[in-house]
Amino acid sequence: MDFRDTPEEASFRAELRSWLEGALGKDWADQAPTVGRWNEAESRTWSKKLYDAGYVGITWPKEYGGGGHPHEFQGIFLEESARMSAPDHIGGIGLGMAGPTIIAWGTDEQKQRYLQPLLEGTEVWCQGFSEPGSGSDMGAAKTRAVLDGDEWVVNGQKVWSSWAHIADWCILVVRTDPDAEKHRGLSYLLVDMHAPGVEVRPLRQITGDPEFNEIFFTDVRVPRDSILGQPGDGWNVAMTTLLHERGTLGFALTAGLEKAVNRLVQLAKEPGPDGTRPADDPVVRDQIAQFWIDLQGLRFTNYRALTALQKTGVPGPEGSMAKLHWSETNQRLTSFAQSLLGLTSQLDAEGAWWDGFWTYMQLRSRGNTIEAGTSEILRNIIAERVVGLPKSR
Amino acid sequence: MDFAFSPDQELLRAAARDYLADRMPNDRMVSLAESDAGTDPADWKTIAEMGWLDAELGLLEHAVLAEETGYALLPAPWWSTVALTWPLLDDELRGAIATGERSATLAYAEAGGPATIADAATGSTVKASGDSLTGTKVNVPDLTSVSDVVVVAADGLYAVDVAANPGVVVPRSTIDKTRRLGDLHLDGTPARRLDASLDALADVRLRAIALAACEATGVAQRALDIAAAYTKERQQFGRIIGTYQGVSHRVANTFVATQLSRSIAYWAAWAVSAGDAQADLAAASAKATAGENSVFACEQSIQCHGGIGFTYEHVLHRFYKRAQWINAFEGAARTHRAAIADELLGPAA
């Protein structure tokens, strides 16, 4: 057991740190954040910059444009990004879900075609899993794909699809065999979002932002070989995606929470609306220390899970709880930050506190316990698959 | 970065788990807890033979053993000896402890005076005169089951042989009967000055809270295992109660709390052993988390059991009381969070 960087890790960290300071400016992290979301063009430019510097797909195979580094390097990247409050790559769903699934299930042609543009941020991915009638119960998906010559013809509707309004590609779960048992009748297609018959209707979230969308598919024609695995493999392929969503994403969640804790510390040290510093209030101090501890719990649980993965080849039970712990901590933290701002917390535009940064963060956090597996589903998974209680359904 | 225990440390864990499962099943632990002595000297000899008291064990080996002895609620003064006195012992005591002839604890608290190891180095009213000590210490862990006590006196550290001077020991009725507290009434009692200085108490304190956190993790894991075993079997309304989400989600929450404790406790054990720059923060985080979470785990487990979990007959309260003992030791969680806040936010105005 040694939590320190190896010499290779230390030099990777040092180079990255100086690169980030050069690219963003040394005082980037100390500036008050605004709502903090770049427009699409700025995000794509930043993503390409990250890629050119070698900081995207750090653990992916070199032959597909990745860095070929061990997972610790990805952990270091996220730690340093959090330390700097660096902006995210635009292709979160591609990097965290579509890409790893293509690496696991794709043909050589598919890997050559899709991975590099995904890393560069020139092609953005979205996810078509949930439907109006099937959220947590993905096996009940109704969107159909019927083979017609050398093409699948897709009809149906997906929902809660983040970033679909800017996406170029979609990982889409469809029913290809309506007669098979429900999990066995699914297939996993890679669908061009610019194809005729694809219509994206943004849904406004409680933040007011259109971050997620409905996607309507009307006689959309998809090449027969734009499929991962064989027809009928859809459930297993999707499980790979979700494993990555709930697995390696732990590091990204740690980085996100670290940014939030750092911002909360920054907020508490500034005079609040009444002129006093929250940091002088013992109750505030106790709460902030607890959030910092919650962050360390997430961080070291992820590292333990990673070590287990590398030593045994299978993810340890530790990883299953990362998203659950993160989401509930992030909700408590953002609500707490809002509570330091009095009625000012209710303003959400230019001229509000940090231009409404915490207002946005708090409202957005309510989605954290719903997206990517509700807390209820995650507790079921822990109880049944990790602790070994009998199945509830 | 490497976040795993070494193969040797894992072997030590497996051997400890096997030994404790075989030699210290719940019924024997309970009968010792309910006995006058509270411990069996034969166990101490065996522990020494297995190498658990060897001088060359490091803090990570102690961390592994603390977790396992917490899991079994071992009624022997192993934790007190290793966590409270280790850096203070001289060769004479260390040698006699390694062979299982002696055992030790630390007397640091006084009525109305220092209450924690953190405060113990100043303000003691225990006075030395030649080779003897006079004064009173309170809430001494495992006082009734050790042979020797390291006493924090006004001018330094002394060893008192309580086996040879049993009259100085005043047992106190303690809810955790596997780790009883006692008061030490010294009145011209023979004592031997130790070489270690009062400054060494800072090191003892960090080791003690890191190892308390590891032990608490073992306690939480046991409470979780007991809850899981029961909720897999028990039926009500024709269904196994573990299929009700109101029950299974409590168990899931207990799992999460236990894993968080373990992650932070291991971090603390490593940071303290390596003298890492964040050792103080890690130890404070571990004590706050593992203390509170072990109490939480036991409370969830008790609730999952219904009425039987509330009885003296059931074993759960033993673990619950140890969890409370640990949570109360060396400052409640909020005092450790206050120390973390000082680091993050600077001093309050």
Description:
The complex is a heterodimer of chains A (393) and B (349). Chain A is an alpha+beta fold and 393 residues long. Chain A folds into three domains: 7-90, Acyl-CoA dehydrogenase/oxidase, N-terminal domain (Butyryl-Coa Dehydrogenase, subunit A, domain 1, Orthogonal Bundle), CATH 1.10.540.10; 125-232, Butyryl-CoA Dehydrogenase, subunit A, domain 2; 247-386, Butyryl-CoA Dehydrogenase, subunit A, domain 3 (Up-down Bundle). Chain A has helices at 7-24, 40-52, 71-84, 92-105, 108-120, 234-246, 249-269, 282-312, 322-339, 357-365, 375-386, and strands spanning 125-128, 144-148, 151-162, 169-175, 186-192, 198-203, 212-223, 227-228. In chain A, strands 1-4-5-8 form a four-stranded mixed sheet. In chain A, strands 2-3-7-6 form a four-stranded antiparallel sheet, with no helix packed on it. In chain A, a hairpin with an 8-residue loop joins strand 6 (198-203) and strand 7 (212-223). Chain A is globular and about 70 Å long. Chain A starts with 6 loop residues before the first helix and ends in a 7-residue tail after the last helix. Helices cover 52% and strands 14% of the residues of chain B. Chain B has eleven helices and ten strands. Chain B has helices at 7-23, 26-33, 41-49, 59-72, 78-85, 91-98, 200-233, 245-274, 279-305, 316-328, 333-345, and strands at residues 104-107, 127-129, 132-141, 148-153, 156-161, 169-171, 181-190, 192-193, 235-236, 239-240. In chain B, the strands form three sheets. Chain B has a four-stranded mixed sheet. In chain B, strand 4 (148-153) and strand 5 form a beta hairpin. In chain B, helix 9 packs antiparallel against helix 11 (333-345). Chain B is globular. The relative contact order of chain B is 0.11. The model of chain B has no long low-confidence stretch (mean pLDDT 97). Classes of the chains: A alpha+beta (393), B alpha+beta (349). At the A-B interface, helix 7, helix 8 and helix 11 of A face helix 7, helix 8, helix 9 and helix 11 of B.
